[in-house]
Design a protein that fits this description.
SBP_5; ABC transporter substrate-binding protein; 26% helix; alpha+beta; single chain; signal; globular; SBP_5_CS; 16 helices; SBP_5_dom
Length: 554
């Protein structure tokens, strides 16, 4: 888990004052004579601390941000609603649970004018099979063969039912066979000179401070691309400098943590400066289910209303995030997967009186001093661990501890290093702590990782992901059903039942969603995804760029 970026509002205010900034200072033209956006300024372009020209899509650690606009996948997922959109493939069919057939789009050309076809798709997949160092997403853990049957058909064969790997194989970026088949060592190939792709942009210029990509006029859906250039900027000045630039209107789009985003950004140019922070992964209270009283279902159910999720959102997360659904799903985006009979999309309110009554009814009364007693008649005392350097989590843990203390528990907060914290969580050396799960469009992984028994381990041994040590045959059965289901209705039926297990059996207690940072300006371009129009998530760059249009256009 990466340490969240933490910058104080005071430090940013000092930086703003020192720079003498009093408002937005972005200058320059916005729309060209032919009705196009002249250029957009974006934030960082990746490549590490010393970026070099690298447009190899299979070297993600050092590849530059242009890669996502140069190369395209078979399908593009709207990761807000988790819906696949046809892209280089126009359709797909499961012949059987192990055999997936893609229909490849006609009329697509590489930027050097060569035609794109099924051979390029099969070559790209088999390139990763031949050079395992390039298979960073692990597609060949699931595949046994990828074959071009004809110029417009690709068949993928999986080693076992492959529904759970559909998103993975759908999103692999495709490279041109006629170029890459001549490369002597694809593992070290940086593709730095005139990279050839099918994408909407080509590389125009690069230096360690700025990367510029230009519109591909021969793109297969060029009519949807209304931006002539995107200019990415290296954030080598650090977070405070990037925030300063954002506040001055120097970025048309960026994605970063900003304290008090309304004051630091929106209020400086409220007509054009906007943000949207849709929910990501779920942060939950993990209880060690091998220890009493956490192994008692009635105890866990009683705690579901014990935590003030809204206060955590407001005080620990700057009000940027929403309380999470007990179902384990990300709502409202994934609400289509919810059982219709679950009220309020599974988001539970704060009701300490109910939690107190439910605990007492479950056999955990208070003594005369107000201390909550276990079934052995002794006061319940336990620890809550949180990484000491993760300030937002520490604040959230403080609220959780206060909520539990008000119910009569004695809770000691411990603040180990992140490394020690993650080790203790993995081996089960804890009473209670925070854990993150879900948030992707792979429903199998969202539930399998935190809940499947094969992701657990005996106490003292490192679990892969099931850190609470949840063991339930019904859960495993549903996860297996989800793994093999190629029909969406069957997938949704399995997810619905897993959601009910989360609600009824309480293997963990979701509290809040992590935010996906997304700031944007509408002075030059409109059509950005937003809370009012959530057609994509931040990071769904191919969907976003095909929806942007000049400001003032209809």
């Amino acid at each position: 888990m990466k340490k969240p970026l933490r910058i104080t509002a005071l430090a940013l205010a000092v930086a703003l004052a020192a720079a003498g900034c009093t408002g937005t200072e972005q200058q320059g033209s916005t729309t060209t004579a032919d009705g196009m956006v002249d250029y957009l300024d974006y934030g960082g372009f990746g490549g590490g601390s010393n970026p070099q020209a690298n447009y190899n899509p299979y070297l993600p650690a050092t590849a530059l941000g242009a890669v996502g606009y140069l190369f395209e996948p078979l399908m593009v997922f709207d990761k807000y609603h988790c819906e696949p959109k046809p892209w280089l493939a126009t359709a797909y069919t499961w012949k059987d649970p192990k055999t997936l057939v893609f229909t490849i789009r006609e009329g697509v050309k590489w930027t050097d004018g060569k035609p794109f076809g099924a051979d390029d798709v099969a070559f790209s997949f088999n390139l990763l099979k031949q050079h395992q160092a390039l298979d960073s997403t692990g597609v060949w853990r699931y595949l046994s063969a990828v074959v071009a049957d004809d110029p417009r058909t690709v068949t993928m064969t999986f080693t076992e039912p492959g529904a759970s790997a559909f998103l993975l194989v759908s999103e692999l970026q495709i490279v041109p066979k006629h170029i890459w088949s001549t490369v002597s060592d694809p593992v070290t190939f940086t593709n730095a000179t005139d990279p050839v792709g099918t994408g909407s942009f080509t590389v125009k210029a690069f230096n360690p401070q700025q990367l510029t990509i230009a519109r591909n006029p021969n793109y297969w859906q060029a009519d949807k691309i209304k931006v002539n250039e995107i200019r990415f900027h290296n954030g080598d000045g650090g977070g405070q400098i990037d925030q300063l630039k954002l506040s001055r209107g120097e970025y048309d789009h960026n994605g970063m943590f900003v304290p008090d985003i309304k004051k630091a950004y929106v209020d400086r140019d409220p007509e054009f400066n906007h943000y949207w922070y849709p929910p990501g992964g779920t942060i939950s209270v993990y209880l060690n289910l091998t220890r009493a009283p956490f192994d008692d279902l009635a105890f866990r159910r009683a705690l579901t209303t014990a935590f003030d999720r809204q206060e955590i959102s407001d005080k620990a997360q700057f009000g940027y995030v929403k309380p999470a659904s007990q179902t384990g799903l990300i709502v409202p985006g994934q609400a289509g997967w919810l059982p219709p009979d679950i009220p309020n999309q599974g988001v539970l309110g704060y009701d300490p009186a109910k939690a107190d009554a439910d605990l007492t009814a479950a056999g955990y009364p208070k003594n005369a001093e107000g201390k909550r007693l276990g079934k052995d008649g002794k006061p319940i005392t336990f620890t809550f661990k949180v990484p000491g350097s993760w300030t937002d989590w520490v604040q959230a843990a403080r609220i959780v501890t206060e909520n539990l203390t008000e119910l009569g528990f004695t809770v000691q907060t411990q603040t180990p290093t992140p490394e020690s914290y993650e080790n203790d969580r993995a081996i089960g050396s804890y009473d209670a702590l925070f854990g993150v799960h879900g948030g992707s469009c792979n429903m199998f992984t969202n539930f399998q990782a935190p809940l499947a028994s094969d992701q657990s381990a005996p106490i003292g041994k490192k679990a892969a992901n099931n850190f609470v040590r949840w063991t339930d045959p019904r859960t495993d059965q549903l996860i297996q059903a989800l793994k093999v289901a190629t029909d969406e209705n069957a997938q949704k039926a399995a997810v619905a039942d897993l959601s009910r297990i989360m609600m009824d059996q309480v293997p963990m207690i979701p509290l809040w969603y992590g935010a996906k940072w997304f700031q944007y300006r509408t002075k030059k371009a409109v059509g950005w995804p937003s809370e009012e129009n959530p057609y994509a998530n931040p990071g769904d760059n191919l969907l976003i760029i095909t929806n942007l249009r000049p400001a003032g256009s209809s």
